[in-house]
Amino acid sequence: MKRILVTGALGQIGSELVPKLRSIYGNSNVIATDIKQEKQYWQSQSGPYESLDVSNAQSMYNLCKSFQVDTIIHLAALLSATAEKNPLLAWNLNMGGLVNALETAKELKCQFFTPSSIGAFGPLTPKEKTPQVTIQRPTTMYGVSKVSGELLCDYYYLKFGVDTRGVRFPGLISYVAPPGGGTTDYAVEIYYEALQRNNYSCYIAANTYMDMMYMPDALNAIIHLMEGDPAKLIHRNAYNVTAFSAQPEDFRREIQKYLPNFKMEYKVDPIRQAIAESWPNSIDPTAAEQEWGFSANYNLSKLTQDMLERLGQKFG
Ligand code: AKB
């Protein structure tokens, strides 16, 4: 049975990944950590929670050792738009946290997962069906930290034999915890606003395509990759994964099938628009499909139906 430590557990992915991992590996075998002091909330979720600042290498090591962890899932990071506002903080947190987590994994011989992103690509990358191995010259600090992270994970595997694995996530859409500070966040906000106000002001231009994925598919991707046969993992760090490519207008049309009076206007934010334009329109997940059986269950229409239903229940 695995003993897993998750950093950034209160974020968009962690909030759903921790309960899912606990349902598979047992409550006491999954230690949720985050910089926030929210022990009470997490204890009510019947599993261990510890506050952890990932920039503190010694605390991370001590926690992993005392819980006899054999797997680290490192999620703590700043997202693209926030990182652009404070690039030095983003570099220090994203890279400092990652290297501390990798060092701990090396010392304690842990399996290791951390997500990369479509943000690891840049304007020189082929825009359509972006291949697994291609030009990566991102122009954002988030992207710079993600490419560096991919390389660092490769290095720890090749040099020290750490079993590092990772995916390049597209925009992730979920109804449990909101994302914070990403470029693709519009694809989550739009559902909340549609249900609460019947109106959404979108900061990304109408015809800008980016890859997206529903959270259940993202969680399955992490679990399948971590359970995957190591002998088959050629591109072990940072597999392209995606469910569909969409523009804001596609979301509007899908939502209007359920809420015909829903209105959408555009107030483009130049910073986030520039980030979006530097990313691919669509990426090619063939390597993930072939090497560990990646597949996504939710397309835009299935996702929209589920999001509106779940959020509708939440808002009563
Ligand atoms: C962001 O928009 O920053 C993230 C991502 C695609 O990595 N959702």
Main β-sheet, spatial strand arrangement: 3-2-1-4-5-7
Which ions, cofactors or small ligands are bound in this entry?
2-amino-3-ketobutyric acid
Q: What's the multimeric state?
A: single chain
Element-by-element helix/strand order:
EHEHEHEHHEEHEEEHEEHEEHEHHH
Helix and strand composition category: alpha/beta
Number of E-type strands: 14
Please mark out the parts with pLDDT under 50 across 5 or more consecutive residues, or reply none: none
Range of helix content: 40-55%
- As a whole number of angstroms, the C-alpha radius of gyration is 19 Å
How much is the average pLDDT? 96
Q: Kindly estimate the percentage of residues that lie in beta strands according to DSSP.
A: 5-15%
Distance between the termini: 39 Å
Shape, please? globular
Largest β sheet strand count, sense and barrel closure: 6 strands, parallel
DSSP summary: helix tally: 12
